[in-house]
Specification:
By secondary structure, the chain is α/β, with parallel strands linked by helices. It has a domain of 43 residues. Helix 7 links the parallel strand 4 and strand 5.
Length: 332
């Protein structure tokens, strides 16, 4: 029998499932329904479309990453990264899309997530695809001796910004890699102008310009009791130092900035300027002037950023043209 809570959510879950029926894959009906139940409490929240689509397309994102890594990993084969059935760990596995993609390719997959709800969703996603893997409910910021030296590939996508102690987290990733293994991370860029206008987690104006305490206050003002679990938006230099201190290399893959050009970035900056009056009006009163000042400083920094030489242009696009950075790391 369903619990009282599940019964109460059932009508909302049905409406969510119907609203996003276009994402229901022929072989993913149970997963789709589970996502509808998972997001039923957000039925009337403006972030629901963003979050549901992100969850429902997890397998597609996993496929894209697996295809990309297939082009990168052969160059490492001579150092033992690729075996007949490589071991792959997805840290912060969430909906299990990366587990599905690599299990389809014959890998032995393990997922770990701090949220038990995600562990259940990932397990269901794998099972409905006729695949298997090991799922661990746990904190990747804590010790897991059973992972030591075990994995040829460790994945952490859209995870690092949610980690309160990134140094310990990265040291764990290093320790979990096999000697010739590699880690693949996707890290969102809080300085990308469209994310300043609306961040990728809460769709809030200017929140990426604030530190964690300030951003938490922002969310609390709008949604009492709401939790803000994005602890940092750092730049590539700060991330490189963290990786180096953890004993890892830090290679931003060359197409991280995508098709952006200086002109495209400047157009996004102008769109941000145009959105600023309405955006600032939506910022809670106690934080509005702080966001306004941070925005002024941010726009000045972009305006004065050098972008004449090829190296300056590359740097400018890395800092402001990339919605996220994809990083390959190995043990030093």
């Amino acid at each position: 029998m369903p619990s009282e809570t599940e019964s109460a959510l059932a009508p909302a879950a049905r409406r969510v499932a119907e609203r996003f029926a276009r994402f229901r894959a022929p072989e993913g009906g149970l997963f789709h329904e589970a996502l509808a139940r998972h997001f039923a409490h957000l039925e009337d929240h403006p972030v629901l479309p963003l979050h549901f689509e992100y969850a429902a397309t997890a397998n597609e994102r996993g496929e894209r990453a697996a295809e990309r890594l297939a082009g990168l990993l052969p160059s490492l084969a001579g150092r033992g990264l690729l075996g007949r059935r490589p071991r792959v760990l997805d840290v912060g596995c969430a909906y299990g899309g990366f587990l599905v993609a690599f299990a389809r390719r014959g890998a032995r997959v393990t997922g770990i997530d701090i949220d038990a709800r995600y562990v259940r969703l990932a397990a269901l996603n794998l099972r409905e695809q006729g695949l298997d893997g090991d799922l661990v409910h746990g904190d990747a910021g804590e010790a897991h001796p059973e992972f030591a030296g075990r994995f040829g590939l460790v994945i952490a996508n859209d995870v690092l910004e949610h980690v309160p102690h990134p140094a310990a987290f990265l040291a764990n990733l290093r320790d979990w890699l096999a000697p010739a293994g590699a880690a693949y991370l996707e890290i969102p860029n809080g300085a990308w102008p469209p994310y300043v206008a609306r961040d990728g987690h809460h769709q809030l104006f200017g929140v990426t310009l604030l530190d964690h305490a300030e951003a938490s206050e922002y969310v609390e003002c709008l949604t009492p009791g709401g939790r803000y679990d994005t602890y940092q938006y750092l730049g590539p230099d700060a991330y490189e130092r963290l990786f180096r201190d953890a004993g890892l290399t830090f290679e931003v893959l060359p197409d991280a900035a995508g098709p952006a050009s200086v002109a495209a970035v400047l157009a996004e900056v102008e769109a941000l300027r145009a959105a600023a009056p309405a955006g600032l009006d939506a910022v809670p009163g106690p934080l509005r002037e702080r966001v306004r000042e941070r925005l002024r400083s941010y726009l000045e920094t972009i305006a004065w950023a050098p972008r004449r030489t090829p190296e300056e242009i590359r740097r400018f696009l890395l800092l402001y043209g990339a919605p996220f950075w994809t990083v390959l790391a190995r043990r030093r």
